[in-house]
Structures are given as C-alpha cells and as structure tokens.
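Limitations

Structures in this collection are predictions, not experimental determinations, and the ligand pose is part of the prediction. Treat each record accordingly. The example that follows, with flavin mononucleotide as the small molecule, is included so readers can see exactly what is and is not provided: the inputs are given verbatim, and the output is the predicted complex.
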Amino acid sequence: MKRVDDFRLKFGQKEYVPIMVGGMGVDISTAELALEAARLGGIGHISDAMVNDVSDRRFDTSFVKDKTKQYKYNINNLDKSGVKFDLDVLADATRRHVGATMEAKKGGGLIFVNCMEKLTMNSPRETLQVRMASALDAGIDGITMSAGLHLGSFGLIADHPRFRDAKLGIIVSSVRALQLFLRKNARLNRLPDFVIVEGPLAGGHLGFGLDWAQYDLAIIIAEIIKYVKDEQLNIPVIAAGGIFTGSDAVSFLETGSAAVQVATRFTVANECGLPADVKQDYYRANEEDIEVNTISPTGYPMRMLKSSPAIGDGIRPGCESYGYLLDANGNCAYITSYNRELALHPDGKNISVMDKTCLCTQMRNFKVWTCGHYTYRLKDTTRRNADGSYQTLSAEHIFKDYQFSVDHQIALPV
Ligand SMILES: Cc1cc2nc3c(=O)[nH]c(=O)nc-3n(C[C@H](O)[C@H](O)[C@H](O)COP(=O)(O)O)c2cc1C
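Predicted complex:
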C-alpha cells in the first residue's frame, strides 16, 4: 500500500515531498506555518492579502494607521475612488513580510506567496505588479496566482531579473481557465511551473457557482492532466480541495497529480494564524454548520461556518484603512449594500447587511470563518482535553500524517 512519501514533486532536478500547504489569507497561513512545511521538505505558502496590516502586526510598522490618517477626511464619503494605496508602502510591506520569512527558512522545501488577484486595490495593474515584483525582490521561491486569475499577470513581471528563475504557478478550477491563461501568455514564452487544480470542496473563495456540489475534483483534474499531456506541456498538476487523509492524497498522486495542496487540516495547527477560540469553533463544527454563500464582495462564492460573526454585521466600510477590494473605479459591492441599508436607517444605528460583508475588515479581525468542506471532520484528527476543548496540533504532526499514513488512517497526537 502506497503512501505520500513514495512520491516526489519534481521541479527541474530538485525533488520535494509532494505536499503543499495552501495560502490562507489574511495571515491564517502564517510565516510559521509555511516555514514548517518547507522545513519538512514540502512547500508552504504565505499570503500577501492585506500585507500592510500583516507587516504592522509582524514588524510594528504603522502603515494602516498612516493610511487611515491620510484618508480620514473621506470616512463619511460614499465615494471611495480617491482612496489609493501608496505603492512604495505596499512594496515595503511586501518586502518585509516575504524577506523575514525567507531569512528564517530552513530545510529542503520551498516557500511561495499566494497572490489573490481579486485584491484589485483601486488600481489592479499597478498594485499587482508591485506585489509580485516586491515578493521576487525579497527572495520568495515562487508565486501562486489565485482568485480572479488575471490573464496578463505574468507579463507584469516579465522584466524582473527573477522572472524565469522563480516558480510561477496558477490556480484554476477548469480546463477552460487553464487554456485561456496559456493562450494569453503564449507570447511570453514562459509556461507556469505548476498548475493547482482546486475543486469544489476547498476553503476560501471557490471557482464554482452555487452549483458547486455538481463538480468533482477527480473529473476536472483528469481532464486537465489529459490536456497537459496531449499538448506535451510538462507542467506539474497539483490537486486541491477536500484531500483530508494521506490516502486521499495517494489516490491523486497515483492518477497523475504531481502533488496535493491542502489547507483545512492545518487550520487547527498551533502555527496557524486563527485565534485559539476560533480553532475550537472549527473543531466543533458539524456538517450542517458549514455553508457556501455569496457574502464576499468579490462575486465569488465562499465557504464558511454559518456562525461567522461577519455574517449580517453592518459595519461602516473600512476602505480608508484597508480598501483591498476596491475595483479600478473605487467601488466594492459591500459599499453598495451598506449604503442601501444606511438609506433605510439614516441614523446609522442597527444596521445589518445580510447580502455582503466588509471582507477586508472582517478577515483582518478573523470574523469570517472560512473553511473547507471537511472541516466537520477535524474533530476526528485530535483528542479532547479534560475541559472538553480539542487539542490543537503541531503543523509537523499534520504534515507527517499526510506524508506517512495509510489506509485512510489519521494519527492522533500522543
Ligand atoms: C481558512 C482558509 C483560507 C483560505 N484562503 C485562501 C486564500 O487566501 N487564497 C487562496 O488562493 N486560497 C485560499 N484557501 C484555499 C486553500 O489554499 C486550498 O487550496 C484549499 O482549501 C485546499 O482544500 P482543503 O482545505 O480541503 O485541504 C483557503 C482555505 C482555507 C481553509
């Protein structure tokens, strides 16, 4: 009977344990978590979502406070088009976050940054370019482009000296999305170094509609592996979404996937950025406590616990401090929804917004409890303490369980 450790992910001449820990913004996949994956010979992700805020927390900078001060005059203005990111600050924050993480890296694995393209930041092209280029400047091993795949993203860093040496990959949920990306990038003569295929059971935003349950990762990935082979592309294809045991992973590795990307199992790791009490909520969740809803202003469905405090919370849009989801014209679907409710309650009191959430502020405060479909199985991966709470696990324990377990077994902590 095979185990994950019988396989290796190859990038050129180098080999890695074929386990990637997926990016989880905002700072849920912390540097500590990514560093453990790399130390153990796999691949870890940090995320650059709301990187100015992450830098403030990690390095005591004051980027968010400074921005809030600069745009304070606009807080009651419904028009957010004037709220911009300072590109030098964005570069500085990214270099700090990535640079400190890379300096701490040990072991034979790699660290990538998850870069969600739906963070349009009131200036999609310029901000994305700065995010990618600064991560490369700071020595990141690779970049994974996700959520809202911008077909021209590789082109934005084509002049960077590390453009051909860093690993660049994309997340797709259909063969069509991959084909479009490859077509658009043909002139760059630069294929993605890896393609992550994320199925409908993943956490975070989904590349599917509310009919997500009709899709099956195994079918999509088979289609993509066939396409890559037929086109003689030689791109490692990585399966993600709902891979809960080492044996689940083996079934993908045996059928042509080069690695797996996993995340949900690591949401209860000691190194994961979720607050300790929220980890307990993840553990306690039952299947009926999890939903896929449309409250994300990005327009993508998102999976989360129904008890997420963000749901229905009618806070004032936090764009003057954050503003990561403002489109090129300074709009965000939450602002529209909030203004609709404000018109009904002009005193600004008792505002509840059900259809959208202020994703920046709420993610920043860990109030959107996004999670994978199998979160309800996390309770089976640990033991309970005398007070009834669940033991959190080390990332190493979870990683090695994926790497060495057989027969769908899950090792409990000692
Ligand atoms: C809490 C959480 C947050 C996530 N955030 C992101 C994100 O910021 N960007 C992204 O591309 N994927 C995100 N994902 C998706 C994961 O990176 C990963 O591809 C997917 O969840 C794997 O499926 P699994 O959770 O069933 O193992 C997130 C997943 C979880 C559980």
